[in-house]
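Fold Annotation — chain and its backbone

Fields — amino acid sequence, structure tokens

___
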Amino acid sequence: MFRKLVIACCASALSVGVIAATSYPAEAAVKKYSNCKKLNKDYKHGVGKPGAHDHTSGTPVTNFTRNKAVYTKNKARDRDKDGIACEKK
């Protein structure tokens, strides 16, 4: 009985460790870009917060990537403060 309890506890602890280990690298992959040219190589039309809308008098950019983590890391690239960094048609 005690042996089954120990095995169950070890299995639970191991599965929690695996879940924690697999969620960390995705967060670490968020990159800060030094300029819009470099950001636009990875995100062709820019990157913005979910729900952001381009502020423009012309045709707004709607095909930008929506990613809160990447936008937050590159918020300084959002010159017009519309929630989209480095928007480009």
User: Anything to note?
Assistant: DSSP finds three helices and three strands in the chain.
